[in-house]
Amino acid sequence: MDSKQRPARERILLAAHDLFYREGVRATGVDRVIAESGVAKLTFYRHFPSKNDLILEFLEYRHQRWMACFIDALKRQHDKGRPGLQALVPALAQWFRSGDYRGCAFINSVVELGGVLPEAMEISRRHKQEMTDVIAGLLPKSRRRVQDAQAIALAVDGAIVRAQFDASPDVALKLLDRMLRALQAQSN
Questions:
Q1: Which of 130, 134, 183, 127 minimizes the C-alpha distance to 155?
Q2: Mean pLDDT, to the nearest integer, of 25-54?
Q3: Span 146-166, mean pLDDT?
Q4: Considering the entire predicted model, what is its pTM?
Q5: Most buried of the four, 46, 70, 84, 174, by CB within 10 Å?
Q6: Residue partners of 98: CB distance under 8 A and separation at least 6
């Protein structure tokens, strides 16, 4: 569907998504979102009474979109013969190597917003917990499954940040793979 044919709310949200992710939440003003979405200022404020409302909606949208992509990438890797944790690094590599990669929108938002918008912090916590739950699903059942998933999720976040500032994501991916292999060897 052509972006001009989309409902105004959707156009605003998509424009905000692209701008907030690419340029940052604080660096992107409402006027820029309005211009990119092609709506009138009154229309914008009818759908989003404040920038904070838009930020929260962006984070919810990004969460749904990212989780669906993450789960799909893991499934594709599984279908290629990479079961369990073997799917994680190649799935992340697809994202890290995408042309629009700019790290984790949730980590970036927490850094940008700090404690200014507690609701954003809560959405980010929920996002990270759901990511951890998906990772736990890749692990064999054990009494340490939850703790291992939390450790892996922490390592994934570190790899996300490292891939964001290195010239190439290769170092981050290799280090994450090394950590995962060490964890698996310890579990055996």
A1: 183
A2: 97
A3: 97
A4: 0.93
A5: 70
A6: none
